[in-house]
Amino acid sequence: MDRRVVHYARQGDVGVITVDSPPVNALSQAVRQGIGQALAEGLADATAKALVILGAGRTFIAGADIAEFLGSGLAEPDLNEINAAIESSPKPVIAAIHGTALGGGLEVALACHYRVATSEAQVGLPEVKLGLLPGAGGTQRLPRLVGVAKALALITSGDFLAATQAQALGLLDHVGSGTPLELATAFAASLPDTPPLPRASLRTDRLGPGDAAAVAAARQKLADSTPWLHAPQRCIDAVEAAITLPFSDGLARERALFWDCMAHDQSKALIHAFFAERAAAKVAGLGDAKPRPVAQVGVIGSGTMGGGIAMCFANAGIPVTLLDMDKAALDRGIGIIARNYAATVAKGRLTQAAMDQRLSLITQTTDYADLSAADLVVEAAYEDMAVKQAVFARLGDVAKPGAVLASNTSTLDIDAIAAASGRPADVVGMHFFSPANVMKLLEVVRGRDSAADAIQTAMAIGRKIGKVAVAVGNCDGFVGNRMLQYYATEAQRLVIEGASVAAVDQAARRYGLAMGPFAMGDMAGLDVMQAIRDRRVAEGKIYGTALSDLLTADGRKGQKNGRGWYHYEPGDRTPRPDPAVAAMVDAYRQQHGITPRAIGEEEIQKRLVYALVNEGARILEEGMAQRPGDIDIVYLYGYGFPAWRGGPMKQAELTGLANVLADINRFAQMAGDDPTGAHWSPAPLLVRLVAEGRERFG
Ligand code: 3H9
């Protein structure tokens, strides 16, 4: 090995074990081995009265090295061995925490005799968010330190705790200001010379008669809220072992449950999502281009979308100039923004002072000249090419040199928009998802001429305002909406064949999607979707979808006028089945001689999801997404796809690409020569991968 990832040094009478494995000191095999060796050095160092474990760089230890889980198993030494060596040390061992002590990192700290932390530090056992459970003593030591009920809450939620909260629970012994080493050294000096060292594994004082009831209550709560999730229930099983089994047997049970979780598809999906999200931040082909600085932003259009986008920047402390055609539109827009903030204040999630401060960052104008100082302008005008081109022509005149000009178009050709600006290198797409101040996804669209640093700017500012930014290519609908059109079409085909609108939505929800396709259509606006579809039909890209045409012809716009696929009571967003829609569907079937058939939930789910997968494969092949994981992240953060399924592309891999292709071929056969089912023609990439016996898209 080139450099030691853990080193030992003495400072006065304290032996310091430093984990130095950037970026987050994850517990790779080398780090585990290094801690074991450094501990041995410390124990052999006669001058060291106490030992301190700390992390170099930005954090303590952020957990096991998740990448190691993707390999063929965990190499020696086992983290449990290292933890046992720490806990049985005759010299006091103090964990000195800054940044985050997470997962296996916190488990190392729990094996130490004492834990001190800087006041900004956070601790947690987030394994459950990866579909796992703490596998190196966390489920056994934490209940002994903080009590079963508190341990269950932390382990089953995976939530982080601030240092002061952790201290109040008894998880940390001291929290203060200073460097971790200063805190630990002072703490060591305060210890008695011949202490009975506190060992979490031996403690029983926080266990008690109410524990079995706490376990039962936690089990029931999860069974009621998320019965489909595998790991949380296994977390409870492991904590239960802490009260029913001796410590060493509890550890063995915990490890068996850990492997059980590891073998489950949900952990594979969640670990995939963890890495895919981080990979998405890296855009190939940009060389070493750096983002341009953004200190001032302009937003064009003060409707729902523009207002939400303005809020994103104001929330991040960036001044925004909001432009619309007239004062009345602006007043309406600002009114909606103020009401949104006020609702957050009412819920206690924002102070009035913070709301006032954010509102003060948003200024209004009807004059394009007021955008001349903006480093970035985001256009959120009406989704119409002529409108967008007119806006970009104005921007080309008024924006300062080097300003990045972004369009929030959800489907239109970025190159055609860019051409109108006269400076296409500065133009990119920044496609926010509604409501823009809430949804985490940002598609950053690369135009043909977009400069590398303009793309980097959009990616960087996206992250700064708390979005998950994914770079996508310039195609109709980009990644998310391009796939969605076939999903929506398929939903309607299912209804034509015999399913009810509510049954399709229920099947989607039971699959884990946040919302069914019809409820989603009603939220997005049937009129908006119709306009997009009409354009695509006119351009010969798709065939019309009969049912939605009938609904929009009937004046149905969705939630906004209380009439869509569902019926809505005034001021209530609850979708209620609408007999008038059912009658329209019946009439349609009769007119076309279709005898409705019963369609099972599994068929509905497969047809919805595989419609996404098949188009996703085309997108990959065309290079419109860099990686299958990028497509998954678009669906997880933009369309309410469940993280525990990893995204549509990961689901296809977990199901087996050959199985998915067989079903797609079956659906193609069922569609026959129905042009609205043309999307079932299998994607050439999928066919090729299956022919080659490959199991992954990337
Ligand atoms: C566990 O501990 C199991 C044990 O109980 C049992 C064992 C038997 N491993 O997020 P960032 C990488 S399960 C490997 O952008 P931030 C990450 O991929 C683990 N790599 O930074 C990225 O790489 P790149 C329980 C990891 O400052 C880079 O570090 N622990 C790990 O926004 C920077 O990450 C967790 O679940 C890891 N554990 O956030 C903690 N962690 O630069 C998971 C990070 O190549 N980690 N990387 O893209 C986190 O929550 C955040 O990364 C953290 C930093 C808060 C630490």
Outline the secondary-structure elements:
Blueprint: E1 6-11, E2 14-19, H1 29-44, E3 50-55, H2 66-69, H3 79-87, E4 93-97, E5 100-102, H4 104-111, E6 114-118, E7 122-124, H5 138-146, H6 148-157, E8 160-162, H7 163-169, E9 174-176, H8 180-189, H9 211-225, H10 231-244, H11 247-262, H12 265-280, E10 297-300, H13 304-315, E11 320-323, H14 327-346, H15 352-360, E12 362-365, E13 376-379, H16 385-398, E14 404-407, H17 414-421, E15 427-432, E16 441-446, H18 452-464, E17 468-473, H19 480-497, H20 501-511, H21 517-524, H22 526-538, H23 546-553, E18 566-567, E19 576-577, H24 579-591, H25 601-621, H26 628-638, H27 648-655, H28 657-671, H29 684-691
Parallel strand pairs: 2-3, 3-4, 4-6, 5-7, 6-9, 10-11, 10-13, 11-12, 13-14, 14-15, 16-17
Antiparallel strand pairs: 1-2, 7-8, 15-16, 18-19
Helix pairs in contact: 1-3, 3-4, 5-6, 5-10, 6-9, 6-10, 9-10, 10-11, 12-26, 13-14, 16-17, 19-25, 20-25, 25-28, 27-28
The chain binds (S)-3-Hydroxyhexanoyl-CoA.
(S)-3-Hydroxyhexanoyl-CoA binds next to helix 2, strand 5 and helix 4.
